[in-house]
């Protein structure tokens, strides 16, 4: 049986399927929805994606992503400059912000150590964190980096989900 859509639509489906949480079937449904709502959804989405490509950048101070550099969090005068909250990635920063968990400043490591995935200390922004931690106004560094190693019955000393890991 041949293709049911042209190459442009198939490419759209393939690209959508790369997004987290979207498999091939969900991507096909999303593509069909975008196509049906071309004027109301697809055109504004394409415009928003182009603006994101042009304007979003990584904050040189903390590693957050924003349309300004330093980012909105780093330039907020209401933030506590004495506290740095260390997170693995931007998604963790955003989650803490949604939960209103801290009023401190952030530092995004960029990943967690994972030798099996080829992520070593050289891939993290540890040097920048150490430099920031030595600034005169910083009094506290909070590690909000969670382990992704799950404990087993044999080895109860392994870290489980939700437990801090060592850098």
Describe what you observe in this structure:
The protein is an alpha/beta fold and 167 residues long. The protein has two domains: 7-55, Helicase, Ruva Protein, domain 3, CATH 1.10.8.420; 65-143, 3-Layer(aba) Sandwich (Dna Topoisomerase Vi A Subunit, Chain: A, domain 2). The protein is built from six helices and five strands, in the order αααββαβαβαβ. The strands form two sheets. A three-stranded parallel sheet has the order 4-3-5. Strands 1-2 form a two-stranded antiparallel sheet. α5 links the parallel β3 (80-87) and β4. It is elongated and about 60 Å long. The model is unreliable at 149-167 (pLDDT under 50).
List the helices and strands and how they pair.
Elements lengths: L6 H11 L6 H13 L1 H18 L1 E2 L6 E2 L5 H4 L4 E8 L2 H9 L5 E5 L17 H8 L6 E4 L24
Parallel strand pairs: 3-4, 3-5
Antiparallel strand pairs: 1-2
Number of strands: 5
Round the Cα radius of gyration to an integer and report it: 21 Å
Strand content: 5-15%
Determine the CATH topology of the largest domain. Answer: Dna Topoisomerase Vi A Subunit, Chain: A, domain 2
Quaternary structure type: single chain
CATH class of the largest domain equals: Alpha Beta
Q: Rough shape?
A: elongated
Q: Mean pLDDT, rounded to whole units?
A: 87
Largest sheet: 3 strands, parallel
Strand order of the largest sheet: 4-3-5
Distance between the termini: 53 Å
The count of domains is: 2
Specify the CATH architecture of the largest domain: 3-Layer(aba) Sandwich
Helix content: 25-40%
| SSE-based structural type | alpha/beta
